[in-house]
Specification:
It is built from twelve helices and five strands.
Length: about 325
């Protein structure tokens, strides 16, 4: 009866958290760095409002030593991205508080751009000074023995006030230059806006997004420049010509498509087509061209300002009379 009876196997030990290999997803193999590393928070590497280019650029800037050059042209020489992409990534970091750029005037009068990088947005506006190395505490010196005097000691003279140090010159912050806003030129006015011209101009503007996806316009943005497109049609401009003028060489990125279309409709408007008589007069300057007429009797062509009979028929009419 004292012999133990084993009827079931012992339970397997529970796995230690962190030792199990996941069945899917990323697997980390980490080694501790002893030198040459940068501490970056997950709020940057996992930021949902920043692009991958902006996150990588922020990590590169935080790994650089103080005083390193991070201008757009310098970064474009260092990385394969274009200057436009790098400038857009720097603007993203400024918007989310990881970067601050300002223009300052130096003592010699030069104006430079000062860039401050923050590894944690919302911290102090000035960079934290590096801590000084600790020095070994000095041994306490014993106090001097008291002096025995037979007369009353004289009061020690008050120390002269030391001159206050001159304040360091503060850099003058200049406002970031903004683009000058110029009033848009007025849209061209046609002689008579018919319903047919209005319909064709509106359809042409609404169809632009099929040829350029950037030109997605609202209803108000379509109806406002429609009279200007109708002026093009009134001047015998082909719809393909208008479409090519409005969709070729679009800037990237396109921020205000309606303003761009208004500008191109106004500045690229072709002149009215000249008449046939104007073209003849331009081809032969100084010569008055008399049009051709057909004789009412013999149907012979002759030049005259008024219709009637040719010279031979007029002679026969006078002879018969």
């Amino acid at each position: 009866m004292d012999t133990p009876q084993i009827t079931a196997p012992p339970c397997a030990p529970s796995p230690v958290p962190g030792d199990a290999t996941p069945s899917s997803g990323v697997i980390h193999i980490n080694f501790r760095h002893a030198a040459g590393f940068t501490v970056i928070g997950n709020h940057l590497t996992q930021h949902r409002g920043l692009s991958l280019a902006a996150i990588g650029l922020a990590a590169h800037i935080q790994s650089l030593p103080a005083g390193a050059r991070i201008g757009i042209k310098h970064l474009a020489q260092r990385f394969p991205e274009s200057e436009t992409r790098i400038a857009a990534a720097l603007r993203e970091l400024e918007v989310h508080g990881y970067l601050h750029r300002s223009r300052v005037r130096l003592a010699d009068g030069r104006i430079v751009t000062r860039t401050v990088s923050y590894n944690q947005p919302g911290t102090a506006a000035h960079p934290v000074a590096a801590p000084r190395p600790r020095t070994a505490p000095s041994k306490p010196t014993p106090p001097p023995p008291p002096r025995v005097t037979t007369h009353e000691p004289r009061p020690a003279p008050a120390p002269a006030p030391s001159p206050a140090p001159a304040p360091a010159p503060q850099p003058v912050l200049l406002p970031t230059p903004t683009a000058r806003t110029t009033p848009s030129p007025p849209l061209p006015q046609l002689q008579r806006l018919t319903p047919e011209l209005q319909r064709v101009a509106t359809a042409l503007l609404a169809d632009l997004r099929r040829h350029a996806p950037q030109l997605v316009l609202s209803e108000s943005d379509i109806h406002t420049p429609a009279p200007g497109v109708a002026t093009w049609l009134e001047r015998d401009a082909h719809p393909d010509t208008i479409r090519h003028a409005l969709t070729t060489d679009l800037p990237a990125p396109l921020k205000h498509p309606a303003k761009l279309l208004r500008h191109r409709i106004t500045t690229l408007l072709p002149p009215p087509l000249p008449g046939a008589q104007d073209v003849v007069a331009l081809a032969r300057p100084g010569v008055i061209v008399i049009p051709l007429q057909n004789c009412d009797r013999c149907d012979r062509a002759f030049r005259s300002r008024n219709p009637g009979h040719c010279r031979d028929c007029r002679t026969d009419l006078h002879t018969a009379a």
